[in-house]
Amino acid sequence: MNTQNHAAEAHAGASVGTNLAVWIGLVAITFLEVFLAYEQLNPTLMLTILVFLSVLKAAMIMAYFMHLKYEKFGLVLLLIPATLFCLLMMFIFFFQEPGRMLLMRPH
Amino acid sequence: MHDVKTEVALDSAWSGGKSPFAIGSKKLGMWLFIISDTLTFSALLVAYSYSRLTNPDWPRPFPIQPAIIFSTTMTIVLLASSLTMVMAVMAAQRNDRKKTVMWMVATMLGGLLFTGLHLTEWFNMITKEHFTITGNPEGTPLFGAVFFGITGLHMTHVLIGVIYLGIVAVGYGRGKFSAEDVEVNGLYWHFVDLVWMFVFPMIYLMSVKY
Fold it and tell me: Can you give the pLDDT at residue B1?
């Protein structure tokens, strides 16, 4: 199948209104993150909350701006589980020994 | 010459006769590149997170005013450029070449503005606050390597994205590239934006000076 045909079969995708709503949501989460920076939370708690909010923003960008929500589900299955698996492998070292990071701190 | 049975088999989703994911090869290639680049940035950010939590003397060089306000502005600029890229892709799907090029130029300007703001911040940190890649006056020298390494790699991606946008905008404007090329370009640009959604909170907001 040639690429012109694919372009012609342009995915329905989100409307301008939906994309604008997603963008406003992304900006709102950014301001929420900046507000959290004022709160002087414990670094571990702060990092956990920020990573959660960042993953949420990444999911919104991938689903709507990158059209993944409107692609064939097989593509999502090809891309996302493998990536998550690799990321979890990286984090195995992070949580391997929960007390280790604290022991590494200079006393 | 294939017989009828072979031709039916070749036409099935998993034989190569059809695109199993219903997308073109360029788009699939870009997605696979994005996944590999995701792992590059993830490795850097995981290493950063580990260093950040294990170093009690991690520098906090970013006061809310002006550094966090400045980096928040950079974030909004990059997010805005993602929205203009969405508009470019939508215009390309309508086959509206003039508007596609216009939105792509707007996206390039967003990328250039982001880079300009970022370089200004780097310049101030290096010349006024004496933060370098190997040391700083406030804490562990690891900060400089992490900060300049991760933000530098991201800035390189932004600059490559601006050049890529320029090439595709000219090609699409002249009718040499298709709407799919614009969409693939959009995937790259949104990925650059997506990476910043992790860099900004994890590096800037985790090092706020109170």
Answer: 47
Interface ipTM? 0.87
Q: Which residues of B touch A71 (CB under 8 A)?
A: 21-23
The pLDDT of B70-87, averaged and rounded, is: 96
First-to-final CA distance of chain A: 64
Q: Compare all CA atoms of chain A with the CA of B23 and give the residue at the minimum distance.
A: A6
Minimum Cα–Cα distance from A41: chain B residue: B206
Instruction: Indicate the pLDDT class of residue B57, thresholds 50, 70 and 90.
Output: confident
What is the total count of domains within chain A?
A: 1
- Give me the domains of chain B, ranges plus CATH numbers: 23-209 (1.20.120.80)
pLDDT tens per residue across span B25-55:
899 999 999 999 999 999 999 888 888 888 8
Of A38, A50, A75, the CB nearest to B206: A50
CA-CA distances (angstroms) from residue B205 to A32, A85, B181, B210? 11, 27, 36, 11
Q: Are B168 and B203 in contact (CB under 8 A)?
A: no
Place of tokens 């979890």: A88
Range of the domain at A44: 3-104
Mutation for testing the A interface, residue in B19, B23, B146 having most A CBs under 10 Å? B23
What mean pLDDT, rounded, does chain B reach?
90
For the four alpha carbons of A32, A37, A39 and A43, in that order, the dihedral sign comes to positive
